[in-house]
User: Fold this.
Amino acid sequence: MAACVSCGGAPETVAGSWTLDPTAFVEEAIPVMLDSGRIPRGAEKLAEAQLGKVRMQIDLRTDGTFVCDMGIGSTARYEGTWVQNGQNISLVQTLENGESKDDQMSGKCNGDSLRLVHDEEGMSMPYVLRRSAAASPR
Assistant:
């Protein structure tokens, strides 16, 4: 497995727990939603309020599998596999709440920050996550 290099530190794996940074997520998602026409100009504050409620937790396991819990209020569970190549990471979702699914996200790791992009119905939605725990040995 390749390494993700943090600023000035030793190489490290991206394996571990990651939590959505709600402020960074909203800041990056609003322009994408405006550009794609998903929200009209002038509705940014309403969209900010809704997007600020999104919660996301990803556990990237050392065995190359992941579990992601995400939602507003109710939570959906996504499972699949992930690979890392340097700072680049790719996730392939194979299950959504136990049902078969074939979906992908990719992004980059920079120290304790992980930025994933998911293609959603014609727009590339960015998700900014912060490391909340290193991978535990299994």
Notes: The chain has one domain: 4-133.
